[in-house]
Amino acid sequence: MKISRIVALIIVLIAASFFLVPLYATFQFSLQMLRGQWSLQAYRSVFSDPQFLSTLSYSAVASLAAIVISTLIIVPTTYWVRLKMPRVKPFMEFITLLPLIIPPIVIVFGYLRLYGSDSMLPLTVSTAGTNVMLVIGYATLSLPYVFRSVDNGMQTLDIRTLTEAAEILGASRATIIFRVILPNLRAAIVSGAFLTFSISFGEFVFASLLNRPAFGPYLVQIGQDRAYEPAALAVLSFALTWACMVLMQIFANAKPGTSARRRPAALFPFARRKTA
Amino acid sequence: MSFLTITKASKSYGANTVVREFDLSVGKGEFISFLGPSGCGKTTVLRMIAGFETPSAGRITIDNRDVTLTAPNRRRIGMVFQAYALFPNMTVADNVAFGLKVAGADRATIDARVKEMLALIHLDHLAERYPYQMSGGQQQRVALARALAPKPQVLLLDEPLSALDAKIRVSLREEIRAIQKQLGITTVFVTHDQEEALSISDRIVVMNGGRADQIGTPFEIYNQPATRFVASFVGTLNLIDVTVVDPATGLVKIGEQTIALKDVLAASAGQTVTLALRPESGSILDGARGDTALTGEVVSSNFLGSVVRTRMRVGESLISFDMFNSPGFAPPALGERVTLRFSAADLLVIRD
């Protein structure tokens, strides 16, 4: 092995240890709830808390709703901008970056001012209205990720020529979008969706300020009250995020005609694999 | 009887006019090529026929039906794109079936037509493949089958061979021509490759600056170019500026040498006109035939295998000529004075 490769390996190991050592330490700590022995007691305790399951499912539903909303907004808009108004694209990029620039706390206070009890559309006065606001907030937070993955998907697709090819064969706009554009954007939409999911699933600021029973505030609450359970929860949410990333990999690499189930290699994104 | 007619079609984007008063009528079953450099407006005319661009002025009719403002999906036109544009999520068979499915044909009709089309392009065995599993040449053949499947009235080919390598390009263009003849479909082909246009077309439209410079058979375009642009773009014609001495007898002067043209010149004495001479129309061998001779100094001589390409200077002009290689003929040396003999009938007067 060449010296340069050894040096490179050492650098990679040092960098990786920044992530892996704390993760391992957290994991080990989560196993030490019973004195003097390794056990999964902390996990048992987490799962037996009814609040855990209720906040988990609340956040899951809210995140899924946010995915649907942001996809419905972003896909047709990006398609139209690319096809008919390419000059507007820099503006789109700027707008969709704003949620990364403006702190969530500013956004949520803006929403509270706009949709508070004395506004034209008082969303905060009812539970359902506040839930809607939370979902809209999550959709806003997801804009940078969904827009970029959908836009990249369209970039590789050459949607203009595909649209024209379908059009000259007699297809209507709706047929083109549903039979040609959407199926080919599946990977991009799914990876945007998983990013949205992993962001909004453990989100704290929106959920806390809107006083919703979501997973993020629950995590913080447990962190203040308990010793071992937060470590178990951290490991669990890491596993969930990792699962999202793996699913993204599978969908991003799946080609038509090859089902993901037949390609187990996709479960191990770091393993070398043959490309078709 | 013309099937596809374009009448005084123009297209402008703001102040920029890319097609000017373009007139063309194409007979049923005819194969027409638009030939020209990039930016000459050939693709814009094609896209106006397809309906992707609306003419700023003028009319387009297909089979006596005015389609100038008809949407592309109602024109019954087939089109093949440079980038293939197959639908990546569909198999070859589904791609070919797409136009028929959209038109609401029944299952049995679709299956039969797809089979027929795949047999036509000799790809029946790849019906279940996806586009990414095929070579460029195969994808383009599928694109052709897809365009032909719904039985379009007109077939448009937008530089379909440009993305392919040289060998496939030649074999596929022969295949396209054979299929076009077999189906008798009216076809418009856009290309910037003169050899492609000359070899495949019934007629060629040579385009320059948004206008049709000349419309004619490949033979006419190559042998009787109408303008300086056509002469320089098609083939490798020599363009020689000469001074008119006597228009009535066709006498002109090149440097210090005087030659007589076959025709009366429509110019006055002392004016400069441009003559064209094909490189293969003369010879410098002793005893070569020809009623006209020009003597000049050799400035370059390239041995290209079967052909020897020589350039000589006559007055201000450089004249290049090709001669077949033969073991008894040594290529002329640089600086040597040679006499090129040719027939005065081969000299064409070119207008700008």
From TrEMBL, chain A:
The chain crosses the membrane at residues 7-27, 56-79, 91-112, 124-147, 187-210, 230-252. InterPro entries: MetI-like (IPR000515), MetI-like_sf (IPR035906). One of its GO terms (cellular component) is plasma membrane. It is a multi-pass membrane protein. GO terms for biological process: transmembrane transport. Keywords: Cell inner membrane, Cell membrane, Membrane, Transmembrane, Transmembrane helix, Transport. Belongs to the binding-protein-dependent transport system permease family. This is Spermidine/putrescine ABC transporter permease. The lineage of its organism: Bacteria, Pseudomonadati, Pseudomonadota, Alphaproteobacteria, Hyphomicrobiales.
UniProtKB/TrEMBL annotation, chain B:
Keywords: ATP-binding, Cell membrane, Membrane, Nucleotide-binding, Translocase, Transport. The keyword Nucleotide-binding applies. Signal peptide: none annotated. One of its GO terms (cellular component) is ATP-binding cassette (ABC) transporter complex. Transmembrane segments: none annotated. One of its GO terms (biological process) is quaternary ammonium group transport. InterPro entries: AAA+_ATPase, ABC_SmlMolc_Importer, ABC_transporter-like_ATP-bd, ABC_transporter-like_CS, Mo/tungstate-bd_C_term_dom, P-loop_NTPase, PotA-like, Transp-assoc_OB_typ2. PROSITE patterns: ABC_TRANSPORTER_1, ABC_TRANSPORTER_2. Gene3D superfamilies: 2.40.50.100, P-loop containing nucleotide triphosphate hydrolases. It is an enzyme of class 7 (translocase). The keyword Transport applies. Part of the ABC transporter complex PotABCD involved in spermidine/putrescine import. Responsible for energy coupling to the transport system. This is Spermidine/putrescine import ATP-binding protein PotA. It comes from Xaviernesmea rhizosphaerae. The gene is potA.
